[in-house]
Amino acid sequence: MSQPSQFKLLGTRRFLPFFITQSLGAFNDNIFKQSLILAILYKLSITGDRSIWVNLCALLFILPFFLFSALAGQFGEKYAKDALIRLIKLGEIAIMVVAALGFLFDHLWLMLVALFAMGTHSSLFGPVKYSILPQHLREEELVGGNGLVEMGTFLAILAGTIGAGIMMSSGHYAPIVATAMILTAGLGYVASRSIPRAAAAAPEMVLNWNIFSQSWATLRMGLGQTPAVSRSIVGNSWFWFVGAIYLTQIPAYAKEWLYGDETVVTLILTVFSIGIAAGSMLCERLSGHKVEIGLVPFGSFGLTVFGLLLWWHSGALPQDALAYDWLTLLGHGQAWWVLFDIMGLGLFGGFYIVPLYALIQSRTPENQRSRVIAANNILNALFMVISALFSIVFLSLLKLPIPELFLVVSLMNIAVNTYIFKIVPEFTMRFMIWLLSHSMYRVEHRELERIPDEGAALLVCNHVSFVDALLITGAVRRPIRFVMYYKIYNLPVLNFIFRTAGAIPIAGRSEDIKVFERAFERIGQYLRDGELVCIFPEGKLTADGEIDEFKGGMTRILKETPVPVIPLALQGLWGSFFSRDPQKGLFRRFWSRVTVVAGAPLEGEDAVPASARERVAALRGDVR
After folding, report:
1. What percent of the chain has pLDDT over 70?
2. pLDDT at site 193
3. Contact between 88 and 125 (Cβ < 8 Å)
4. pTM to 2 decimals?
């Protein structure tokens, strides 16, 4: 069944006004920050080391995330999010008026006050920005919506950075920058007025105004979630550690290793931002419109590979007497390799970050979501500060070159994500499932909305290959507990996936009565807990591609725990490498189309093995 493109969301009132509001906010942030930095470096009369003032700007913007994120998380739970966004956007207009006065009168301290206030604005907006999405989007839209948000954010950052450079090059920069900032803030407020109602999740909450105790409590809440959520928060913050290092070093890298001028910096930022935007957009297609955390290891792998390649390709460009502009740089083949590596970093960064945000949103209780995202923001800020200190030690104290910093960060990325994937093996399991369903097969889904979003159900399916369970797991949004023959359960490599997914090994009564009885106990418990259980009632893989008789285990399950029965059918797997077709071959049906199709639920007298077999056979049809 075809799914609508994520870009359809841009035509809906429940998403478009929010998208415009947050994109304009990111755009305005960067117009202001970049214009202020350029004013400090080139326009204002300042005595002493200007780099100290630039670093002070970075500190003033990030400090509010430490101070006010916890409070912002509470606001996001207690008050309606749409009203809160409008109030924050009104505050942005006032802040930009102060910043505009600073530019018009060349008053540095006034601009720094506005910068701290703008950091406060961003820290208040962050938790609401990500926690409102699950209220307005359906689950199958969540990845696409997050992808659009990340695309809009990074393209807005790029546009703001470039726009600031153009405006600051004018001899009358102050009124131009002042007008742009106030106008952008005003447009953001106008867009926010069309955001639909998003009710408060916990209006009864009593606010804790002690920012220190509440920040600690918020961090504990975020890191005290399920391992998948808490480690996703850590993985998210690690991404900002890595990203901050790359983005901070781009100007110096462009000058010292590419021998470029300011246009080369803009070129690199453009390539990186386009990469992030493309990766964010591709996430929806690669994930099949669901929260697919299997993309996270894929993204992590790409970040490491392209980081290593960037180190490898650095230093081979010939130096000229004059600095290269962007067009001259493109005349050198070595520069294309560097830009390819930077594009790859952005692309795989999108694959990495979008599923993490979607997982945090989808698996956090609604009445804690804003505070958990606030905890993520606090940790992000901490990791970004650590990244700055790390870079200072590496580059200034140890006197090592920038490419070697990229090498070290790439190797550290292996260690950090190995830790995360070890603690939460679900990431690795989902990656292996995703890889299988996107490498050897082209998997199509039909009528899977018949599987209930909540509550127990027994799925019954024909058994064609050793990877049937993996393909079904990759197709269905909800976790499924599979009942499988214990010898298949114990297969090398696949056993890791089956154990992680909570599969249930079963043996024949005559083979091992304890395993047999224990399997039915676990099936009953899972169904009583409201979970999905899938069985292959034939009891064995098909030896001829046809559907064998359904055994009586299904009857015993339903007698002990009556639940709806959902028939499933697999089409197109017979003859593939993992089937028992005697004519199979590794490449015989490589990249063949496989379909997972669901039928209407069976209940009462229809929920018997013979009727279930007939329904599964009808769903499969003639496509073996």
Report:
1. 96
2. 94
3. yes
4. 0.77
